[in-house]
Amino acid sequence: MGNPIYELSKLNDISAACKHAGILLERVNKANSSILAISDLVEPTLKHLISNAPDYFELDADRLRKTLENRETTIYSTMCVLVEMGTLAMNIDEETSGLSWVIDDINSTVNGINDGINSILDGGNSDYSDDNSQGAADHE
């Protein structure tokens, strides 16, 4: 049977895991803020283009050509912005997945500490063993 007091030293592991979780949340918040900022910039621009679209039948050939070229440029720029937003969304997904692992590790460590404490309270007569403890790990 292992030493249940050892589990109390794992509080440092919990602290490190919480710090790592905080870093992951900060990354998620930055990516989310970027997506919101991009949306705030793109939406009014596209609405303006749609609401101020000229009547193509009233344009001469040169103005029609220029208008269509501008539309193509706008569509390409919008596509680039959407690709960036997709990348940011994937980053959010990845970081939240990492956060899930950190939370699982914290939970595992807390359960090990609880087992250690219960073993002490039971006078060392529990089924607890150090081999069953898991500890928080850095998943970065």
Main beta-sheet annotation? none
Low-pLDDT residue intervals, each spanning 5 or more residues = 128-133
Number of β-strand runs: 0
Strand content: under 5%
Radius of gyration: 28 Å
Residues in helices, as a percent range: over 70%
Order of helices and strands: HHH
Coarse morphology:
rod-shaped
Account of the protein in words:
The protein is mainly α and 140 residues long. Helix content is 76%, strand content 0%. The chain is built from three helices and no strands. Helix 2 packs antiparallel against helix 3. The longest helix is centred in the middle third of the chain and has 61 residues. The protein is rod-shaped and about 95 Å long.
What is this structure's SSE topology?
Layout: H1 5-8, H2 11-51, H3 61-121
Helix pairs in contact: 2-3
Search tags:
140 residues, 3 helices
Short synopsis of the structure:
The chain is mainly α and 140 residues long. The chain is 76% helix and 0% strand. The chain contains three helices and no strands.
